[in-house]
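R.M. (postdoc): so does anyone remember the format we settled on? I'll just put the structure tokens first.
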């Protein structure tokens, strides 16, 4: 059973920084990639950044140059360092893990952590 637990959200002023963490447990060896998505108020969930097991990263245009995704050496925790935060970054941020095809291409989600950026 896979479990993803996020932490690090909160309230910050525009221009500030936050670091989100996502600790994974369970069949971590099945993960092809881990990443972060967000859901702004009244909008659909959207990609923020992903990192594959091989180290490749992908960022949404809105995150490029401001956010950095990283993983610890044990590959059990993924981080999202968010700098130069803007009010439009306000959202619930979700950790995601996607498995390899031979594990069914399954998506696992954390419970979400609120990030609020005040102007």
């Amino acid at each position: 059973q896979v479990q993803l637990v996020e932490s690090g959200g909160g309230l910050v002023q525009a221009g500030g920084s936050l670091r989100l963490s996502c600790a994974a447990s369970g069949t971590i060896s099945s993960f092809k990639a881990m990443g972060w998505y967000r859901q702004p108020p009244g909008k659909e969930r959207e990609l923020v950044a992903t990192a594959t097991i091989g180290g490749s990263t992908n960022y949404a245009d809105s995150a490029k140059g401001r956010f950095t995704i990283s993983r610890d050496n044990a590959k059990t925790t993924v981080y999202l360092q968010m700098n130069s935060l803007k009010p439009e970054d306000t959202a619930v941020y979700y950790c995601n893990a996607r498995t390899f095809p031979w594990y069914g291409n399954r998506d696992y989600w954390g419970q979400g952590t609120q990030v609020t950026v005040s102007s």
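R.M.: ...and that's the designed sequence above, right after the tokens. Also worth knowing: The two ends are 40 Å apart (CA to CA). The mean pLDDT is 95.
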